[in-house]
Amino acid sequence: MTNKMRKELNSQPVPNIQHPVSSIRYPETSIKHQTRNPQLESMRTVPAKKPVLILVAILLSLFLPLSANGGTISTAITCRQTVERSGAIALEVEIQNRGNITAHNVVATLILSDLVKGYDHLGDNPPGGKIDLKDRLVNLDLNPGKYVAIFRVDFEEQNGKPHQAYHFFDIPYRMDRIRSSRLPLSMKTAAPCFNKKAFWEKKGVIRLSMKNNGKEEIRPNVWLFLPEGFTSPEPNRSCRLLPGEEEIEEIPLRLEPDGKDQGLYHLVVWYALDNTHYSHLLKGKIQVEEQPVYFNRYLILGAILLVILFAALFIRRNQPLTPNF
């Protein structure tokens, strides 16, 4: 090949090879060698399409669910109550959706001491919408005292994923009939701390310390209400405290994969004493951290144990045998 032919070959433009993968365009690659066959280059680049397609599929599977679940449902609950002279309680509840997607199949539940009342088939709550609910509780066999009421709202996303929202409010019921305002039970709570990167099972306990400061036996009921992402196999319990007795209740807790960095839990403790109702609302914050798990300590410990084991075997093997006569 003469020098003139080489120069003409080098001056020819290099064909731009495009891969028909979706709408993705790949940058042109400059060919450094002097002589190449375009058909041979096209045949050589065909096997590279498969890993590129796999990479694109992985990226789409990672990012498409994020865009599909971009909406939020923010539920705000407002409760107004009136205690009538007859002892009936009038309730006015407003459930607002301050998010940008619809809350489907909304139902509600009122919990007031031993009273549990459900409100089904409230329909859907669109973004910016609200559901008004009115009720009148009559023929109540309630002792006078301060009640902590719980109003729970259950709803679903469009894909059927369930959610819950709680609202806690006080109902002073015939407080003028209470003999003493002294609280016979003192209590405090402590929350656990989870590590998301831990390989062992993510379990913890909520501790509730109670002390009976009165002169009579108390039988408190404990109800636990958790934020989403946390579960408990035993959220409710009852116990017995003698005068002057102190007890610490440990409520098991588990961090689920969808648990957030932190969450606020509520404990409602209620009991009856001297024909008077007592209710207490305690709050605590569950901490979730992401501390790295170091393997160096475990490796060093394992190596030390292996060295001790081999040393013991070596000593035992070389130990002279004592003849038995």
Write a short abstract of this structure.
With 325 residues, this protein is of the alpha+beta class.
Q: What distinguishing features does this structure have?
A:
four-stranded antiparallel beta sheet; 40% strand; Immunoglobulin-like; single chain; five-stranded mixed beta sheet; alpha+beta; 325 residues; 3 domains; 16 strands
CATH homology superfamily name of the largest domain? Immunoglobulins
Runs in which pLDDT lies below 50 for 5 or more consecutive residues are 14-48, 62-68
CATH architecture of the largest domain: Sandwich
Largest sheet: 5 strands, mixed
**N-to-C CA distance:** 100 Å
Topology pattern, helix = H, strand = E = HHHEEEEEEEEEEEEEEEEH
Q: Which structural category fits the helices and strands?
A: alpha+beta
Q: What strand order characterises the main sheet?
A: 9-16-15-11-13
Query: Mind telling me the CATH class of the largest domain?
Result: Mainly Beta
Number of helices: 4
Radius of gyration: 35 Å
Q: Compute the number of structural domains.
A: 3
The 3D shape can be described as flat
